[in-house]
C-alpha cells in the first residue's frame, strides 16, 4: 500500500490546480463572503445536500446578514426559516451561536479555532472550516468526502471507514507548503470527493491524481468492511417529527392536540415524537395544553 511518504504535497498541488477550473460556483465560496456566511453554510450543509441548502442559505443571509441580526429574533422564526433542511435542532444551535458571538466577541465571528469550538453547536470540523474558508487560515479540514479521497489516494482502500485521529496528519502530509494554496487545498480535496471521488462508483477517468492513486494502482479492490447502511426516511421518527413541525410552522397561534393527530395516525409514535420535540426545545406547550413553536 502507498503511504503519505510517497503521495505528498505534489498530489495536493495537482488537486488545487484541478479545483481552479472544476469547482462549483457556490455562493459561500465567492470573494467577499465573511466568516458568518461561511458558518451558516457549514451548519446547513451538515447531512444536507448542496442543492437543498443553497436557496435557504441565500434567504437566511438576506434576512440575517450578521450574527447580531439572527440573535435578536425569536426561535420560532428561525425554525420556520429552516424549512425542509432537516435536523432542525441545527437552527436553534445556530441562533445560540449567534447570541454567543454577540455576547462574547462583539458580534464578530472569532477566527481562533478554540474560540469557534466554544460556540454552541460548533464542533472541530466546523471550527476548522470557518477558520480556513472564512479567514483564509491553512487548516486541515476533514469531512467524509476528504476522508474518502485520502483512503483511496493514500491508503488504497475503497472507503474511509470510521474517522481516525490520523486523518488530520494524512491531510497535512498532502497539503501544499504555500499558505494560500494550503487553504485552497482544503476546499479542493473536499470538492474532489464530492464530484469525482464519490462513494460507490467514482469517476476515476476525471480524477487529476488517478496516476498516483494507491487504490487504482492496486486494482480497485472492493470495500472489505460491512456494507454501508442506507438511511431510510419513510415511517421513521424523523418523518413524524417533521410532520408535526410542519403543522406548527403553518399555524399562527398555538394548536391543540387534535391538529397534531391529523399529521400522523400512529398515536404511540406521534406521542413519542412530540415528547422528543418538547425535550429538544423545538416545541413548547402552553399553560392551556396547546402546542407551539418556541417563543
TrEMBL record:
Q: Where is the HhH-GPD domain?
A: 44-195
Q: Does the keyword Aminoacyl-tRNA synthetase apply?
A: no
Indicate whether Transit peptide appears among the record's keywords. Answer: no
Listed EC numbers: 3.2.2.31
Q: Which UniProt keywords apply?
A: 4Fe-4S, DNA damage, DNA repair, Glycosidase, Hydrolase, Iron, Iron-sulfur, Metal-binding
* Needed cofactors: [4Fe-4S] cluster
Please write the reaction equations for the catalytic activity of this protein.
Hydrolyzes free adenine bases from 7,8-dihydro-8-oxoguanine:adenine mismatched double-stranded DNA, leaving an apurinic site
Similarity annotation: Belongs to the Nth/MutY family.
- Its protein name is Adenine DNA glycosylase
Organism of this sequence:
Blastococcus deserti
Lineage, uppermost ranks: Bacteria, Bacillati, Actinomycetota, Actinomycetes, Geodermatophilales
